[in-house]
């Protein structure tokens, strides 16, 4: 039988391993270098004239002209609430009431007590007048009579204050709408015991609609009354609403993101929508604009003041003076002419 030769494995020495590793690193480095130095085609765009609008974006919610959050001034058991969300109400309309049984009894008792105090005082007055009539030479009243009269008058006045407090408590047992509008919340049902902190109902005046935008405190110096704005609501993505900044609230708040913001009220121009309180949306507040301005895409700008223009088969670096900017474009005040071509992707020129 013929035996076949056996191939022994090649022994890899440390030296050969190092040489192979260095070779792979060199090949990989050459590949990366070629990829980075590979010239990408330059893209050009023309300098054009258009209206540039500089704006500030802010999120916010839809709101009415005025909102009334209504609560009872004293705790008690809710007897009734005669409105529901969506109902229209008018100023002075009764919306809800506590159980007034005990309050009515208390008022009746205090009124009866007042009558008793007044009767006692009237008797003292009569006695003093009779004394003065029977003693023609005596002017005024005795000290004892004066003390008795004063005590009775104080008791009468204190009881009258108690009656006023009882009447006010009975009046406060009902909630009246302070404004005309629609009911947006009714969180309590009849029979519940409520406190002074429980929100019973909310009424919003929708005679005018507003967008309450949260503007970052760093941008508030750019906002002024009368600025134009455009609002989009998440529920009406296909429709935009115009408006005007009508109020800058003189207080800051912390937004859900943790940023410090100022509430800006934008009065909407007759939006034809069904009012839903606190609908989310976005506002673009116009802080400046330039009509018929030379402009280029912001991406074409290098180091905030240079561009690359087409120069024969090559490009030339040109310094420009810029103006206001929108989200995409920037105004060119000098350094370029209309229809002149500039490099749209200058990063490829820099890396050339």
Automatic annotation (TrEMBL):
Single GO MF descriptor: efflux transmembrane transporter activity
Domain CusB-like beta-barrel: 212-276
SUPFAM superfamilies (UniProt xref): HlyD-like secretion proteins (SSF111369)
Organism superkingdom: Bacteria
InterPro entries assigned: Beta-barrel_RND_2, MdtA-like_BSH, RND_pump_MFP
Cellular component annotations (GO), alphabetically ordered: efflux pump complex
A Pfam family: BSH_RND
Signal peptide: none
Keyword hit for Transmembrane helix: yes
Transmembrane regions listed in the UniProt entry: 16-33
Domain Multidrug resistance protein MdtA-like barrel-sandwich hybrid: residue ranges: 67-204
Assigned keywords, A-Z: Membrane, Transmembrane, Transmembrane helix
Family according to the record: Belongs to the membrane fusion protein (MFP) (TC 8.A.1) family.
Protein name: Uncharacterized protein
Native organism: Candidatus Daviesbacteria bacterium RIFCSPHIGHO2_12_FULL_37_11
Organism lineage string: Bacteria, Candidatus Daviesiibacteriota
């Amino acid at each position: 039988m013929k035996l076949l030769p056996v191939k022994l494995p090649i022994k890899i020495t440390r030296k050969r391993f190092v040489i192979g590793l260095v070779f792979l690193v060199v090949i990989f480095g050459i590949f990366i270098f070629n990829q980075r130095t590979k010239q990408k085609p330059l893209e050009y765009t023309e300098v054009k004239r258009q209206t540039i609008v500089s704006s500030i974006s802010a999120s916010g919610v839809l709101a009415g002209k005025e909102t009334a959050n209504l609560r009872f001034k004293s705790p008690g058991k809710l007897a009734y609430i005669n409105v529901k969300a969506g109902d229209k109400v008018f100023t002075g309309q009764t919306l809800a009431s506590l159980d007034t049984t005990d309050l009515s009894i208390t008022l009746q008792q205090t009124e009866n007590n007042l009558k008793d105090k007044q009767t006692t005082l009237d008797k003292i007055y009569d006695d003093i007048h009779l004394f003065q009539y029977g003693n023609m030479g005596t002017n005024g009243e005795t000290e004892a009579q004066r003390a008795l009269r004063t005590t009775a008058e104080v008791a009468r006045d204190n009881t009258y204050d108690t009656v006023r407090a009882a009447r006010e408590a009975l009046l406060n047992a009902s909630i009246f709408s302070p404004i005309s509008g629609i009911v947006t919340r009714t969180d309590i049902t009849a029979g519940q015991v409520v406190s002074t902190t429980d929100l019973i109902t909310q009424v919003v005046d929708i005679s005018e609609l507003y967008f309450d935008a949260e503007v970052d405190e760093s941008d508030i110096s750019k906002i002024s009354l009368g600025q134009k704005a455009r609002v989009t609501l998440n529920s009406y993505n296909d429709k935009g609403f115009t408006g005007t900044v009508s109020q800058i609230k003189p207080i800051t708040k912390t937004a859900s993101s943790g940023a410090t913001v100022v509430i800006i009220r934008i009065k909407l121009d007759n939006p034809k929508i069904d009012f839903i309180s606190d609908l989310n949306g976005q506002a673009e507040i116009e802080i400046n604009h330039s009509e018929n301005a030379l402009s280029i895409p912001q991406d074409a700008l290098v180091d905030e003041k240079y561009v690359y223009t087409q120069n024969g088969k090559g490009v030339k670096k040109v310094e420009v003076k810029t103006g206001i900017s929108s989200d995409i474009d920037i105004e060119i005040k000098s350094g370029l002419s209309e229809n002149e071509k500039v490099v749209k992707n200058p990063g490829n020129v820099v890396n050339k």
